[in-house]
Amino acid sequence: MNLENTQIQMRKGVLEFCILSIISRGEIYASDMLEELTRAKIMVVEGTLYPLLNRLRKAGLVEYKWVESALGPPRKYYMLTEQGHQFLQALRTTWEELVASTNAIVNAQSQL
Questions:
Q1: What is the spatial distance between Cα 91 and Cα 11, in angstroms, rounded to a whole number?
Q2: What is the pTM of this model?
Q3: Domains of the chain by range and CATH?
């Protein structure tokens, strides 16, 4: 088994949750999301982020608005919809339960 591939799959498994969490803090530009994800060592490229943002928009979880920029073309800023906030809260609950369950297993003393 390849450790790096397993690590990448683990990070991908939480990507949607992380993106929704970032957007929940306020309107944000996609490149700022990429920067934050990269700082957190969740390596994502534009070719992964933009299709995911589009799927989230089609699902009614995020919306965007265009904002004029003095430095170039207009920028697309993303924000959560009310449905997106509810979805994120449900994901947070699932995440907390998953972390608790995983920690219980990983940190358990051997019963031998």
A1: 15
A2: 0.87
A3: 3-104 (1.10.10.10)
